[in-house]
């Protein structure tokens, strides 16, 4: 098997790397569109970005109307700004929602069409996208280093997972200082999202040696630091490890794929408006239990990294201990279950067939160690 690793051309990582945004942007263009949200504006991150760009001789305009779990509407609005202002470089500043919108705009900006055209590779971006610098403010999605964008098609109520080389950002700037302001519930949800990426990348049928080492290192960092990052929001050492892990997990899953958790998580997100990290966290232990018989050896590899007392235990027992640890972690981080999120059971059951169909159609479940049947 030939292993392929595709990542952004440039990655700047470390405390205060955001200060380099002007210098990096000036290498790619002279008029930037900043795609971000109102929270980033309130935190003054947008203003600081514009200031750093001006210092480097780059002019900028902004589109700030993005909401969590972005829809195609935001993509088209931001695209209009890109065109009207003749911008030649894009900055996606914020959580995965801002970065994913920026990726879609970057590809549509040069290749045209609607974003749903690119679903399931019906249309492939042939021209290089408008150069994009992705700057995450959450430690979770890893979108800064993936060739994936997740956009909801409002008309069809489908959360589209679109994967093509064209969606890989030209550069990523990963500054853990930007995540200090993250509220505890966002730190919890995004941290479990990164953990899910790393675990699914390691269990994926398409995993390879590069992705294995990225995934295992990411899991080690997350299990070492997620509790501190959650309980002590100002703990920069813990935040630093979480940002690094999210980046590594993004690189791992972008090249190895995600599996059943993500396949099922997207329809739940689209139909019941559950944030991505939360729906992943609701599903992760259950899906691992379902898959256990076909992946206990790989789960035991993970367990051996994070536990120091596995001597004498069978691989099955270590795998079960890992699943129990993830369940305990979700409780400690106050991750709600479906009921806790306010989803009405009858409504959920009525939507089961559509959710199963959408999950299987996404392709992700096919990479799971145990592949589910259609109902
Ligand atoms: P998000 O971008 O939706 O942000 C959640 C909330 O947190 C928003 O209100 C935002 O303003 C706020 N926020 C973000 N950073 C903050 C900070 N530093 N301080 C204070 N508030 C902050 O959340 P997310 O989990 O980063 O992204 C979720 C989206 O990413 C989903 O649509 C999901 O499907 C997608 N996703 C994409 C990929 C990919 O590879 N492209 C991978 C996983 C998930």
TrEMBL record:
For whether the record's keyword set contains Nucleus, the answer is no
Where is each Alcohol dehydrogenase iron-type/glycerol dehydrogenase GldA domain found?
Answer: 8-176
Domain named Fe-containing alcohol dehydrogenase-like C-terminal is located at 187-375
Per its UniProt record, what PROSITE patterns does this chain match?
ADH_IRON_1
Against Pfam families, the record matches this protein to:
ADH_Fe_C, Fe-ADH
Which keywords appear in this protein's UniProt record, sorted alphabetically? NAD, Oxidoreductase
Q: Which family does it belong to?
A: Belongs to the iron-containing alcohol dehydrogenase family.
Q: What is this protein called?
A: Iron-containing alcohol dehydrogenase
Q: Which organism is it from?
A: Fictibacillus terranigra
Q: What is the organism lineage in this UniProt record?
A: Bacteria, Bacillati, Bacillota, Bacilli, Bacillales
């Amino acid at each position: 098997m030939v292993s392929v690793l595709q990542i952004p051309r440039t990655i700047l990582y470390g405390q205060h790397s955001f200060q380099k945004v002007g210098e990096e942007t000036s290498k790619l263009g002279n008029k930037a569109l900043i795609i971000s949200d109102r929270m980033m504006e309130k935190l003054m991150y947008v203003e600081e970005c514009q200031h750093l760009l001006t210092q480097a001789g780059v002019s900028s305009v902004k589109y700030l109307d993005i909401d969590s779990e972005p829809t195609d509407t935001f993509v088209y609005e931001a695209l209009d700004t890109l065109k009207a202002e003749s911008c030649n470089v894009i900055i996606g500043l914020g959580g995965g929602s801002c970065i994913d919108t920026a990726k879609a705009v970057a590809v549509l900006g040069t290749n045209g069409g609607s974003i749903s055209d690119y679903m399931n590779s019906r249309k492939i971006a042939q021209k290089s996208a408008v150069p994009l610098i992705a700057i995450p403010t959450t430690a979770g999605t890893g979108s800064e280093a993936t060739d994936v964008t997740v956009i909801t098609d409002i008309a069809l109520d489908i959360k589209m997972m679109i994967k093509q080389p064209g969606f890989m950002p030209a550069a990523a700037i990963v500054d853990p200082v930007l995540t200090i302001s993250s509220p505890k519930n966002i730190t919890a949800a995004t941290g479990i999202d990164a953990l899910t990426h790393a675990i699914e990348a390691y269990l994926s049928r398409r995993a390879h040696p590069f992705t294995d080492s990225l995934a295992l290192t990411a899991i080690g960092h997350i299990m070492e630091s997620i509790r501190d990052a959650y309980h002590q929001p100002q703990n920069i050492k813990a935040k630093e490890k979480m940002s690094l892990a999210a980046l590594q997990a993004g690189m791992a899953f972008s090249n190895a794929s995600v599996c059943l958790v993500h396949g099922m998580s997207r329809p739940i997100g689209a139909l019941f408006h559950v944030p991505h990290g939360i729906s992943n966290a609701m599903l992760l232990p259950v899906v691992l239990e379902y898959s256990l018989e076909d992946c206990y050896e790989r789960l035991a590899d993970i367990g051996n990294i994070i536990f120091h007392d596995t001597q004498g235990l069978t691989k099955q027992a270590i795998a079960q201990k890992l699943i129990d640890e993830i369940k305990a972690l979700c409780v400690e981080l106050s991750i709600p279950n479906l009921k806790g999120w306010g989803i009405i059971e009858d409504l959920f059951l009525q939507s089961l067939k559509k959710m199963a169909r959408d999950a299987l159609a996404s392709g992700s479940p096919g990479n799971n160690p145990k592949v589910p049947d259609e109902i």
